[in-house]
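Class, discuss our next protein.
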Amino acid sequence: MQPVAPNWRTSTYTGTENCIEVADNSPTKVMVRDTKARNRGILAVQPAAWTAFVELAKQG
């Protein structure tokens, strides 16, 4: 299987001060990085963990 190039995107709900980018186009991982500090690293999590995080965040 060929590695999938990250398709980075930002949320339409984020402001300019607290913005992250998410690449969720890989079947094996979701990657998150800071928009203002892209060279400082990437957090990679399993898709199920990302889904659980997003659902919890939606609850407030």
User: Anything to note?
Assistant: The mean pLDDT is 88. Helices lie at 47-59.
